[in-house]
Amino acid sequence: MKQWAKYEDTLEILRSTIKPWSNVQKVAITQALDRYIAVDIVAKDNYPSRELSAMDGYAFKWSQNLSELNLTTDLPAGTDKGLVINENECIKTFTGSLMSEGTDTLIPVENVEINGNKILIKKQVPKGFAVREIGESYKKGEILIKKGAKLGYAEIALLAELGEFHVSVFIRPRVAILATGSEIKDLGEALENPAQIRSSNHIALAMMMQKMGAEPIVCEIVRDKKELVQEAIVNALKSADVLITTGGVSMGDYDFVKAALKDNFNIIIDGAGIKPGRHIKVATSGDKYIFALPGFPYSAMVMCVLYVRVLLNAWFGVSEPKLTAILDEDYTKRSPFLEFTAVNLSVRDGKIYANLDGKKLGSSAIVNNLTNEAALLIVPKETEFIAKGEVVEILRMV
Amino acid sequence: MKQWAKYEDTLEILRSTIKPWSNVQKVAITQALDRYIAVDIVAKDNYPSRELSAMDGYAFKWSQNLSELNLTTDLPAGTDKGLVINENECIKTFTGSLMSEGTDTLIPVENVEINGNKILIKKQVPKGFAVREIGESYKKGEILIKKGAKLGYAEIALLAELGEFHVSVFIRPRVAILATGSEIKDLGEALENPAQIRSSNHIALAMMMQKMGAEPIVCEIVRDKKELVQEAIVNALKSADVLITTGGVSMGDYDFVKAALKDNFNIIIDGAGIKPGRHIKVATSGDKYIFALPGFPYSAMVMCVLYVRVLLNAWFGVSEPKLTAILDEDYTKRSPFLEFTAVNLSVRDGKIYANLDGKKLGSSAIVNNLTNEAALLIVPKETEFIAKGEVVEILRMV
């Protein structure tokens, strides 16, 4: 019997080979959504750099029990008139306007009555009211976005506020996707007999690469012919940083991916004691990686997360999306391996629950076990049974 | 004092006006990631439609204590030879191959020894072993993807498996984004004085619209001039289903958005008793909507989630992403309103915790309070204090 390597050991091997991904490009911030930033963004100045009004009202110098102010002029937002104020005077000041020299407080329009040029204070405010302090948002030198962060709407808004047009992000690694198998046909191709099925792997993996921040390159599906498979692998590697293959790695006479890797590349991982996907192979070719995933689509999608994402996340400096949850039903493991089982997550009373509602038992071919944002329940090798209510480890898919 | 409407009441008003969004288009499944599907996807057939092998091995008709089989031929995946088997015979059969007529079980290659044409069974398997049953993945008539679902990698893989090339999705509503304010300048424009700042709202909202499944149309920033604001609103509405404006809705003399809405449109929501954003206004123009959000960016981004997303989600048939969490520190409310406060979420031992680490006190201008995937803590109007450990309501941003 084959001795299967431990998953964690295979990850160690993979991680030990990974060199930093230093490929960086500039993109317009409006094109940078969901990209990984390649630099720290540091505040070059305090923001705001001057005191600003946070409401519409009257700027004045606060003193105890002030009941009346003389209105001098107004100061619309965006205007700098270099105004200076004397005691008992005020300037009509709007949301976002500069606080003028000598003022320290804003009394909102709602709190006053107006009598000609007199502003009568009907409701006092504390000193400093409705003033945006210098550096309220951030101080000069503060790290605002850390290298490796995924740029969401708020990070991009912040870059706009900072006046950054072009931002440095990691270039998306190019990931070639090569589905193999004489039984699989591409979309649009005729199925010639009932033994043939539609390939979903190449499309699933392309979508996953998009979600993981890589650039997918979908290759032509290749039949189970030794020379064709070898040639396709070599060709696909030419224009890619990473190659993912599916199929051709198990125990059959037509598993030519296995043979092609053995003959031409440096295999660093040759199987792992996990379910699904124990026939995984990972090889290197210079700085490039080849992930040979099983052909069953559930296996292929899970293994993409368990191995390919580890590489991409290491390159981007992102940690794996592991969390914990409470199992909402009893679970009996069916294999002697470390298992990754599709579950649904839901939240009740601040707790995350995992259940298997709608998940089908069967082979590793069941694509629909991963729909509806399924996550993976991690069941350790030694575990045979998990009782409802126990805390379990969960790995998010993409 | 103005009587502020309850948030829930304003949502009721908004929801009561919403007509179904029936605008549908076909897109290639590879272009459909994160789109909302406009139809139910129903299995037209069982899948698989024939019994298939789940491993590499020998297909045979199972009987008790069988120890030896005669190998007749092999059947590679993708091939249909119309093979039929007799008792004590077997066919070499590969992962994904058809199970031939008369066979019901697959014995894996690992379990046998080969002696010429004799297959010697070293380790028995139960009847039906390693066979993918008809309909294992899904049965004819099963609903596989529900109308309104967001298409993830697995849904798209499933569509590929089903042989669907074009899928019906909801057309992205066009959302025009019009930032107003004489103090705000677009990226690339020179700041003329220290009272001017960079606009982040138009870019933040454009990114949020992308994330929410809408198509943003960013308009030119418009200064606080009555005629300019009016004209910009009318123009922006021409090519959009929804218009979001920022700024110009509070109590100031230059708040011309307010005036433009009052003069020209049917205001359905005029303020709400919430913090931030109580000056929100929502108007309709035929079937079109105008959301007039405050100018402070934190307010604008939060209000986009609290109102604009409600419309979009109603159109797509999606529910609001509310959840519960456990507050990880004491919280004292500072306003008399229903509050939405930026928090960080984290998971420990199957529980979701919310904390305010790194969140800055101050005005509603602080963009960086929403970075790092911040969510919103919902603090009810009546609540003044929440103790560490209490279960709280949370609304996700985008």
Automatic annotation (TrEMBL), chains A, B:
<comment type="pathway">
    <text>Cofactor biosynthesis; molybdopterin biosynthesis.</text>
</comment>
<dbReference type="InterPro" id="IPR036425">
    <property type="entry name" value="MoaB/Mog-like_dom_sf"/>
</dbReference>
<comment type="similarity">
    <text>Belongs to the MoeA family.</text>
</comment>
<protein>
    <recommendedName>
        <fullName>Molybdopterin molybdenumtransferase</fullName>
        <ecNumber>2.10.1.1</ecNumber>
    </recommendedName>
</protein>
<dbReference type="GO" id="GO:0006777">
    <property type="term" value="P:Mo-molybdopterin cofactor biosynthetic process"/>
</dbReference>
<dbReference type="InterPro" id="IPR005111">
    <property type="entry name" value="MoeA_C_domain_IV"/>
</dbReference>
<dbReference type="Pfam" id="PF03453">
    <property type="entry name" value="MoeA_N"/>
</dbReference>
<keyword id="KW-0808">Transferase</keyword>
<dbReference type="InterPro" id="IPR036135">
    <property type="entry name" value="MoeA_linker/N_sf"/>
</dbReference>
<dbReference type="GO" id="GO:0061599">
    <property type="term" value="F:molybdopterin molybdotransferase activity"/>
</dbReference>
<dbReference type="InterPro" id="IPR036688">
    <property type="entry name" value="MoeA_C_domain_IV_sf"/>
</dbReference>
<dbReference type="InterPro" id="IPR038987">
    <property type="entry name" value="MoeA-like"/>
</dbReference>
<dbReference type="GO" id="GO:0005829">
    <property type="term" value="C:cytosol"/>
</dbReference>
<feature type="domain" description="MoaB/Mog">
    <location>
        <begin position="176"/>
        <end position="314"/>
    </location>
</feature>
<dbReference type="GO" id="GO:0046872">
    <property type="term" value="F:metal ion binding"/>
</dbReference>
<dbReference type="Pfam" id="PF00994">
    <property type="entry name" value="MoCF_biosynth"/>
</dbReference>
<keyword id="KW-0501">Molybdenum cofactor biosynthesis</keyword>
<keyword id="KW-0479">Metal-binding</keyword>
<comment type="function">
    <text>Catalyzes the insertion of molybdate into adenylated molybdopterin with the concomitant release of AMP.</text>
</comment>
<dbReference type="InterPro" id="IPR001453">
    <property type="entry name" value="MoaB/Mog_dom"/>
</dbReference>
<keyword id="KW-0460">Magnesium</keyword>
<keyword id="KW-0500">Molybdenum</keyword>
<dbReference type="InterPro" id="IPR005110">
    <property type="entry name" value="MoeA_linker/N"/>
</dbReference>
<dbReference type="Pfam" id="PF03454">
    <property type="entry name" value="MoeA_C"/>
</dbReference>
